[in-house]
């Protein structure tokens, strides 16, 4: 099939008004491992599958959840190398804010800044869009926050959401399970049950990652021992 210039050129609209390269970037996201997040009354949780290509890989060297600042964390679906660039940029923005204003950046502001960077990569010559979607969590004042940022630079605030390969089934499961009165412990259990629902093979503390921001307003990645205990609780 002959490919039109619009399919290869990032900055050219196709006749139907689409930027096709962004759609291809979303296809890369949908091929990634499932990641999801749930907002609770007293915190917020993100989790992801950590499927490795070989049993010979040292799993401790692979981290899918990253800390952007003391109070903000991120997980992704899509291309790992692309997310490293965004994490580095996000951390710089957060640190610059602390140095300038003497306080932590808000989740909403950091999300906006990162979405702007992703949008720039849809409108510049000689670059391609980032092949990742992000879920970013934190606390703004008294409220836990959960945002999704897409390769186009669009961002949305969610009560619960999922990205990656198992996104459709995970969202359906969350729609049935989610309620606005949910506390953080319940949200962690629901997160694990949602991952379990679409998991190929045996779920264990080695092949999932979970992070939470609780009442203390600090991002914390759970240890394998803690995840093992939570897995036992949902059995």
Low-pLDDT residue intervals, each spanning 5 or more residues = none
Q: Please state the average pLDDT score.
A: 93
Major sheet summary line: 5 strands, antiparallel
Count of extended strands: 10
Strand content: 15-25%
Q: Radius of gyration, Cα only, in angstroms?
A: 18 Å
User: What is the count of DSSP helices, taking H or I runs of 4+ residues?
Assistant: 7
Order of helices and strands: HHEEEEHHEEEEHHEEH
In angstroms, what separates the terminal alpha carbons? 50 Å
General description of the model:
With 235 residues, the chain is α+β, with helices and mostly antiparallel strands. 37% of the residues lie in helices and 24% in strands. The chain has seven helices and ten strands. The strands form two sheets. The chain has a five-stranded antiparallel beta sheet. It has a five-stranded antiparallel beta sheet with strand order 3-4-5-6-7. 41% of the residues are buried. The mean pLDDT is 93.
């Amino acid at each position: 099939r002959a490919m039109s210039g619009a399919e290869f050129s990032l900055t050219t609209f196709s006749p139907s008004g689409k930027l096709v390269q962004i759609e291809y970037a979303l296809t890369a996201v949908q091929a990634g491992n499932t990641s999801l997040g749930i907002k609770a009354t007293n915190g917020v949780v993100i989790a992801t599958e950590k499927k490795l290509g070989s049993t010979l890989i040292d799993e401790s060297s692979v981290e899918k959840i990253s800390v952007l600042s003391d109070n903000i964390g991120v997980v992704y679906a899509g291309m790992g190398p692309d997310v490293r660039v965004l994490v580095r940029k996000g951390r710089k923005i957060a640190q610059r804010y602390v140095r300038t204003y003497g306080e932590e950046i808000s989740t909403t502001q950091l999300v906006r800044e990162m979405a702007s960077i992703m949008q720039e990569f849809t409108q510049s010559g000689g670059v391609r869009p980032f092949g990742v979607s992000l879920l970013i969590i934190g606390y703004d004042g008294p409220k836990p926050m959960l945002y999704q940022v897409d390769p186009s630079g669009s961002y949305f605030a969610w009560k619960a959401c999922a990205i990656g390969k198992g996104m459709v089934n995970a969202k359906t499961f969350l729609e049935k399970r989610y309620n606005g009165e949910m506390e953080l412990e319940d949200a962690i259990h629901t997160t694990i049950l949602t991952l379990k629902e679409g998991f190929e093979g045996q779920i264990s503390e080695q092949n999932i990652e979970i992070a939470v921001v609780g009442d203390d307003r600090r991002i914390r990645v759970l240890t394998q021992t803690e995840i093992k205990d939570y897995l036992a609780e949902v059995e």
